[in-house]
Amino acid sequence: MNEVGVFLEVNDLELHRGGARVLSIPSFSLQEREVLSLIGPNGAGKSTLLLTLARLLPATSGSFRCRGEEIVSNSAIFAYRRRLGMVFQEPLLFDGTVFSNVASGLKIRGMAEKEIRERVMATLELFGMTQLAERSARKLSGGEAQRTSLARAFAIRPEVIFLDEPFIALDPPTRQTLMDDLERILRETGTAAVLATHDQLEALRLSSRMVVMNCGEMVQSGSPEEVISRPGNEFVASFVGMENVLTGTVIDSRDGLVRLAVGGRQIEIAGSAEPGDSAVFCIRPEHVTIDTLDPSGDTSARNVFPASISRVIPNGIFHKIHLDCGFRLVAYLTGQSIANLNLAEGKKVFASFKATAVHLIRTRQLDEAAG
Ligand SMILES: Nc1ncnc2c1ncn2[C@@H]1O[C@H](COP(=O)(O)OP(=O)(O)OP(=O)(O)O)[C@@H](O)[C@H]1O
Questions:
Q1: Closest Cα to atom 14, ligand 1: which residue?
Q2: Which residues form a coiled coil (predicted)?
Q3: Domains held by the chain: number
Q4: ipTM, 2 dp
Q5: pTM of structure
Q6: 55 lines ligand 1 (CB under 6 A)
Q7: Predicted confidence band at 317 (pLDDT cuts at 50, 70, 90)?
Q8: R_g over Cα of the chain
């Protein structure tokens, strides 16, 4: 069997800058071939962590092991860095052709001319850009320049590639195409990657594990689907677009169903909790359904509420519908669905969601909650 090992293991990492602690990571590991995304708001520490993991920024304290070997001495750090590729927001190409940019890492490694030519052409082929080989880097579009920068990083056949918001400056179609190609190339080459991004869709598209960062700490780690549908706290919930974070009081809990009092209504959710506790829970807006007629007889959803539409906010493909059901709820609907249902502000509708669509973030005893 082909066992996947740990490529990088980091423990007790701290980094202080300008007198402040900007990273505090008790432990972190990256598997071979794993594609991991670091997501978090501006200033969360994503770029700093990437640079620290790449040993380009010295940590204040902490231990680093690559395939079980400590990376301490300058020669070990140097050898470790040679196994890595890095791509930043800016392509950082030098004057010269696409070919010479992609060849640069190979030249530094002392590879023979013939091998360089073969490797560069194979890499350009992988990125679908052989026709650009002799083009001056100055004459590239933003997308082509970032593609060249990625090809340069992949040409050395790195074991891990660190990507710091590589798509942030690109227009949506270019971003999508490059992301699709990167996903294929990572899969085909088996290269591990750490991607810093603030965009959860990029994380969903590319990574198998997502780590949410806030204030220099890793606050949740899991598959992107898990983090997005089961956030561990209110910060993660709001960062991943969980617009409906609500608080209620547990009425009773039996057979895997919890009944909560919320804004004068009762909600049923999957889980268990102590009666009398205060509960914080969340519902993804895309899991809320809107009907103009009472769907109670026709839906398996346990939670159906009469509601009035308080706001309709156009928001790209999906529009945000703010509902007042006794508590506030946001639903996402396409413009087409809004037109079909003839929805508008002030209209009376029914909002419904399944008990399993609700994620219980945490419960607290009510006297604790008050204190
Ligand atoms: N050279 C520096 N000196 C002191 N503090 C710094 C320095 N560079 C970054 N910081 C601080 O480190 C923290 C993390 O910054 P970092 O750029 O890593 O965050 P980020 O998550 O990558 O944010 P962004 O998405 O805005 O790039 C911030 O509080 C920032 O102010």
A1: 45
A2: none
A3: 2
A4: 0.94
A5: 0.86
A6: no
A7: confident
A8: 25
